[in-house]
Write a structure and sequence with these properties.
Length: 288
């Protein structure tokens, strides 16, 4: 087994963890769930978060092979196209993104040419497909529930980028009330993750720490099975679904869901410019 190096980058504005994973200096890397900063008040994007990733990759002389997305995020824009321009690499997501594109093309009444085949991405993983990051073995698990297209990337057999499935034990699990989300499906996806060996490292896509606890990117399967407030050992599917459904009914939509989805189903690209050269995002009224 390769010695894996995994560098987290935390964006405190959206509570998102991005990662660079590699086998050491001068090797090949994957960037997972990058963030393009966006200020909804001014409509301006900026690249501070992504530039920190780029600086790390360059400092360690890494060759970027993959720009991986765990899903079409609803709380931040992906910086994958910017990273691709700066570093290279293939932008990849699970093939079920096609389902998500279908739902949101309709909601946003996107341009007729907006393709529903995932071709905005460079690569679509089939469920459980094996791939490599340089010399590192990896597998793309399809772990739906939060959305229909969530993936978890199992890297080197001992480290899993879980996306929005589980959060740290004191936070629990991802919501399941977005279009196509399903609490029963998430329960099954999590059971699969938690059947991995107890010392498997689980790398979070987010942390929302309670007051007094610093944000933390990782935990283990054993910790989750013992202490996850929503999904520790012994919680049945029925109990989980009842808890999740009740809780989701109380949650506001994420601030950036409408802007972020429009960008992320385009693999992080902004919409095409209109005839005045300006790019726009839409806000559907009274529709979700
Ligand atoms: Fe998400």
């Amino acid at each position: 087994m390769t010695t894996l190096r995994c560098q987290p980058f935390f964006d405190p504005t959206t509570n998102t963890y991005s990662y660079v994973v590699d086998a050491g200096p001068n090797t090949v890397c994957a960037v997972i769930d990058s963030v393009l900063d966006f200020d909804p008040k001014s409509g301006r994007t900026h690249t501070d978060s992504a530039d920190a990733v780029i600086a790390y990759v360059r400092e360690h002389q890494l060759k970027t092979e993959w720009l991986l997305e765990t899903h079409a995020h609803a709380d931040h824009f992906s910086a994958a196209p910017y990273l691709k321009r700066e570093l290279g690499g293939k932008i990849a997501i699970g093939e079920a993104i096609q389902t998500v594109q279908g739902v949101f093309k309709k909601l946003f009444n996107l341009e007729p040419g907006f393709a529903l085949d995932g071709s905005q991405f460079d690569y679509l993983f089939k469920a459980d497909e094996h791939f490599t990051i340089g010399e590192i073995n990896a597998q793309a698990w399809h772990v739906p529930g939060h959305t229909p297209a969530d993936m978890a990337y199992v890297v080197n057999g001992n480290t899993v980028f879980v996306g929005d499935t589980l959060f740290l034990p004191d936070v629990g699990s991802a919501r399941c009330d977005f279009p196509g989300g399903n609490a029963k499906t998430l329960y099954a996806s999590v059971q699969r993750l938690l059947a991995l060996p107890g010392d498997t490292q689980l790398m979070m896509c987010h942390d929302y720490p309670p007051a007094g606890r610093p944000a933390q990117p990782n935990t283990t399967v054993a910790e989750q099975r013992a202490h996850n407030i929503h999904l520790h050992d012994g919680i049945s599917e029925t109990e989980f679904v009842a808890m999740r459904t009740k809780r989701d009914a109380t949650l506001d939509m994420p601030t950036l869901i409408l802007p972020a989805i429009q960008v992320n189903i385009r693999a992080g690209n902004l919409p095409p410019a209109e005839d005045n050269g300006v790019q726009y995002l839409k806000i559907p009224l009274n529709s979700i």
